Write the structure tokens for this entry.
Amino acid sequence: RETGDDSSAGKSPTARRIADASGDLRLTVPAAWAREYADGGWDPAAIGLPAAKEPGVTVATKVSDWSDPDSGVNGVFAGA
């Protein structure tokens, strides 16, 4: 969920504050990246850790293409 921006009166924001669905994980990203986000968490089993539902968010210019290194999509994943 989007929690705000860094805009000043009359200026376009350069960054956006994004939080995961729980609100426990928050990050600030370039405004251009914040076109789409998926905030449903993640499963650490994806990287060989014990399976669990943990806070996580992916923010990207196109979330569906973000994990493809050849896509040219800008973004970030953050998980706890």
